[in-house]
Each structure stands twice: as structure tokens, then as C-alpha cells.
Amino acid sequence: MKWLLNFFPRPLLIRLSQWGRPFLDLWFRGNQFTDPINKKSYRKFLPYGYVRQRNNALSPGTLSLERHRLLWLYLERETNFFKNRLKVLHVAPEQSFYKIFKKLNNLDYTTVDLYSPLADVKADICDLPFKENQFDVILCNHVLEHIPDDKKAMEELYRVLKPGGWAILQVPLDALRLKTFQDDTITEPKERMRVFGQYDHVRLYGMDYFEKLQKSGFSTQAINYGKELTREEIARFGVVSHEIIPRCFKH
Questions:
Q1: What is the mean pLDDT of each run of 10 residues along the chain (251 residues)?
Q2: What is the DSSP string of the chain?
């Protein structure tokens, strides 16, 4: 199996993981790591990364990455997501979560994306086909860095969120960068990869991301949930301690 991990490029490896997930799920079973999403344990996770591969990043069972597992722990331990009756909008739904969320009886769960086959509604995040104040919770993770007009997208997310509702709007966030960097003249995929870290990203978010969200109407919290976990939990769940979860509210 080692040749598979070392030989295939990352996109193809992910496709192989999707097709052969039951096999990989069994092959990698062990007791070194635990995926909190499916509660199964593995001897290792798969490598993942565009510019630089991270070891033990991708769960063979759910195809979750570090940020997915950290978010699951936060939702499970710190929110009412799995308990209360909630109307949820999931933008660009992650397959790590999709099937589980679909089956939860407490959720009225709607998915939206312009291209994803997992989307119930095909729509542009900058022009959502929903009325104002529709959703109790919005999940929109690692989407805004792809959107040229992220201000419009943030305003749309705010518009459809109910007063008293909350949203998780994760992006790749550089905590050492004060100001977001964007250069709209960079359009070539290889150059975007070099500058932004991924071929289809259009900016690098700095900590002014929260100011951008606030200008769209949200009040915000920057939750460094990894610091709430023990070292043993960080290692066992394969998460990173520096990932910031942006939780946003509409009052």
C-alpha cells in the first residue's frame, strides 16, 4: 500500500480513496488515530496537500481533513447542532459531513452549490435563491477564498441567516498576516498555486477577515478550539492546534 501513497498525485489519490473507501477503511484500521466523525480508529491517516503534503491528514474512513475533525469536535462538544431542531444551510457540502447530516432527525438540512453533485440547490453564493432570515445555522467552509466578490457572498450569507442564528465560515487563515492579500491580475493556475497556495484560490486571508465579516453585519468570534484540547487529543484525532474557527452571529 505504501507505493500507492507515494506514487499517485494528490487529486488522483483522493479519487482512489473515494472509489475504494471501504477497502481503505479496513486496511488502515488500528489504534494510533481516531476519527471523531465515524468514531473508528486507524493505524495511520493518508497524506494530503497541494504545495506540501501533510502526513496523517486524510482519514481513510470519512475522507475528513484536520479542519473537518476539529470542527466536528467543536460542533459536538460546544454547540446545540446535534441536539436542537435547526434549519441548516450547508454551502459547498463536504462529503465528510454530508451523509451524516442528511440522516440527523433534528436538522432540516439544505445543501447549496453551483457545481457540486451533493447540492440540493444549484446556486451562486453571491445570489442565493432564499428569502431573508431563513436559516438557524449556516456552514460555509473553505469557500470564500474561491469567490472573487467575497463581500457580496458574506452579505448574502448574512441576509439568509435568521436573527439569533449562527454561522461557521472557515477559510484558510494566516494568523500572522494582518491584512488580506488579493491581486485580481493573478489568474493563471500555477501562479495562483505559488502565490495563494492553491490553483483556484483568489486571495490570502489575514486577521482582517473578521473585520470584513463585521462590515457585512455579523458579530464574530475567533475560536482557537485546538487550544481547548489536550495534547493527547490533538495527536489522536489528527487535528492542528492553530486552526481558527470563525463563528459568526446575526443579532
A1: 40 51 74 96 90 88 95 98 98 95 98 94 98 98 97 98 98 94 95 93 97 98 96 96 95 94
A2: -HHHHHHS-HHHHHHHHHHTHHHHHHHTEEEEEEETTTTEEES-PEEE-SSSPEEEEE-TTT---HHHHHHHHHHHHHSSTTTS-EEEEEES--HHHHHHHHH-TTEEEEEEESS-TT-SEE--TTS--S-SS-EEEEEE-S-GGG-TTHHHHHHHHHHHEEEEEEEE----B-TT-SS-EE-TT--SHHHHHHHHSSTT--EEB-TTHHHHHHHTT-EEEEE-GGGGS-HHHHHHHT--TT--EEEEE--
For 1-5, the CB contacts below 8 A with 24+ separation are: 1/27, 5/46, 5/47
pTM score, two decimals?
0.89
| Residue 71, domain member (yes or no) | no
- My answer on whether 92 and 179 are in the same domain is yes
Note whether 167 and 161 are within 8 A (CB). yes
Asked, for residue 27, whether it belongs to a domain, the answer is yes
Contact 74, 37 (CB under 8 A): no
Q: Is 2 exposed, middle or buried (0-12, 13-18, 19+ CB in 10 A)?
A: exposed
Q: For residues 71 and 213, what is the distance between their CA atoms, to the nearest angstrom?
A: 19
- Total of domains in the chain: 2
Residue 106 domain boundaries: 79-228+245-249
